[in-house]
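Hi V.,

Quick status before I head out on leave. The structure for the redesign project is tokenized and pasted below; the design run finished overnight.
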């Protein structure tokens, strides 16, 4: 059985007493009119998707589609794109060898047999490999997208063709977003017993709309800062009635996906959308956590002058020691060429900041939710919105000044470009093992609380990926292991290690 020993430690709860009901949505207010003919609420394709998502104005909800097996238990843009999506998935599998290895090792044992997993993540070729791995391990899956712009339509079609109940397409409205989640949860004769979430919206929906289903969930796996924060709010309020696994704070997620993925994809997203040259540009990065560290390393390497804003003195000191100047946003807002948010907070960039920005300043977000930039404040009659290319809006002030807003303040890399497949394999493998652990854990191992991934599992995920680099681990001698007080086979770090 691919389960790990039980973990007694727990993360400290957040001090924030904010009610769990106050959720940012993935979209802003979409009913406000624009002063141009084409609204940015329309579907646009980005480089992240092979197919053009604006080729059909008919909503997928109004279409009657069936796959080759005659099933219509899905809702995607165009089921005919499945062949292209299958090629995308096959390409992703080549760089996700560890997850494929896990699939091959465990599919005979079927550790997720009987699991009914409802998921809400980005739907890309990489997450498709994860979904199909869960199915190969015995699970039944129903899936929706956690972001209205990150879905690869052809990949969603390929999943639907393979029999996965997927409800997602690129360019969903806010109403579509919640409708898709509800279709995943609410199905006669099928009741979820596991949740895999990215951002907490699915968990929130089940908790609020289907409390009886929520009480019967055997485990929740959450991978984002935002979603984890919401789980701790529930736990602190005594309302979390199921065990949950905090994957975001596992070492194999935070120190790899958050850092290395963002280090490479921040430049990709900015280049594809704006063609900007970074040498000599002044950039302010809001937040110096793992995501911020990755972004700053990439920008600095291309010659940008990088400023940091931080609330945490430890992260601020790290930024100083890495050679960055730590400032308040108000101190540099008039002079910077690019503003990047990656805090997980809300209203980091306000209308006051936007009013003071220089002409042609680029504004984007690398955090999970679209709450970091106050985009709603820009939807006012005196400002003109001009769509210049996919996921790029010019917001024009009465005096002619324009700010370049990317992806309407949503996650830049997955909305506007692609992300490195290999590093997502690390996260996906971690998610799969967390689901296996929670689903197979004996009664009493996990209580109604939020847990960190056992360190042994973190190390196992890392070990699966080392063969890709032809890396050879040194083994401790018996005497060395005794000297360090460690088992020769690990874990090599304490559970509190981050």
């Amino acid at each position: 059985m691919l389960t790990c020993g039980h973990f007694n430690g727990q993360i400290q709860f957040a001090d924030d007493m904010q009610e769990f009901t106050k959720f940012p949505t993935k979209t802003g207010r979409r009913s406000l009119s624009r002063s141009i003919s084409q609204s940015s609420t329309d579907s646009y394709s980005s480089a992240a998707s092979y197919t053009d998502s604006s080729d059909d104005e008919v909503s997928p909800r109004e279409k009657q589609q069936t796959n080759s097996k005659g099933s219509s238990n899905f809702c995607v843009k165009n089921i005919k794109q499945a062949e292209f999506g299958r090629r995308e998935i096959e390409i992703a599998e080549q760089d996700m060898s560890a997850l494929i290895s896990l699939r091959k090792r465990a599919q005979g044992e079927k550790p997720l047999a009987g699991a009914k997993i409802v998921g809400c993540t980005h739907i890309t070729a990489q997450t498709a490999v994860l979904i199909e791995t869960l199915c190969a391990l015995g699970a039944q899956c129903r899936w929706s997208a956690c972001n209205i712009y990150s879905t690869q339509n052809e990949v969603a079609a390929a999943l639907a063709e393979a029999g996965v109940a997927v409800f997602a397409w690129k360019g969903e409205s806010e109403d579509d977003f919640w409708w898709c989640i509800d279709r995943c949860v609410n199905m006669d004769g099928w009741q979820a017993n596991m949740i895999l979430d990215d951002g907490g919206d699915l968990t929130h929906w089940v908790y609020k709309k289907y409390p009886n289903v929520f009480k019967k969930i055997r485990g929740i796996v959450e991978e984002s800062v935002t979603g984890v924060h919401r789980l701790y709010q529930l736990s602190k309020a005594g309302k979390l009635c199921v065990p949950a696994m905090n994957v975001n704070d596992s070492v194999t997620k935070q120190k790899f996906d958050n850092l290395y993925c963002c280090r490479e994809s921040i430049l990709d997203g900015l280049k594809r959308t704006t063609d900007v040259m970074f040498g000599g540009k002044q950039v302010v990065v809001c937040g110096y956590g793992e995501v911020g560290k990755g972004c700053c390393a990439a920008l600095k390497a291309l010659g940008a002058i990088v400023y940091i804003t931080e609330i945490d003195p430890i992260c601020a000191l790290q930024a100083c020691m890495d050679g960055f100047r730590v400032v308040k946003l108000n101190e540099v807002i008039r002079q910077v060429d690019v503003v990047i948010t990656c805090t997980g907070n809300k209203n980091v960039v306000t209308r006051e900041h936007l009013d003071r920005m220089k002409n042609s300043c680029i504004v984007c977000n690398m955090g999970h939710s679209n709450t970091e930039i106050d985009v709603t404040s820009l939807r006012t009659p005196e400002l003109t919105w001009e769509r210049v290319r996919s996921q790029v809006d010019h917001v024009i002030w009465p005096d002619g000044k324009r700010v370049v807003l990317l992806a309407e303040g949503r996650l830049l890399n997955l909305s506007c470009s692609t992300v490195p497949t290999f590093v997502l394999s690390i996260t996906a493998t971690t998610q799969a093992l967390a689901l296996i652990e929670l689903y197979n854990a004996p009664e009493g191992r996990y209580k109604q609380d939020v847990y960190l991934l056992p360190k042994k599992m973190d190390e196992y995920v890392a070990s699966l990926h080392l063969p890709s680099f032809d890396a050879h681990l040194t083994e401790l001698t018996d005497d060395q292991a005794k000297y360090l007080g460690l088992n020769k086979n690990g874990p090599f770090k304490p559970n509190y290690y981050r």
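Above is the designed sequence. The two ends are 26 Å apart (CA to CA).

G. will cover questions while I'm gone.

Best,
W.
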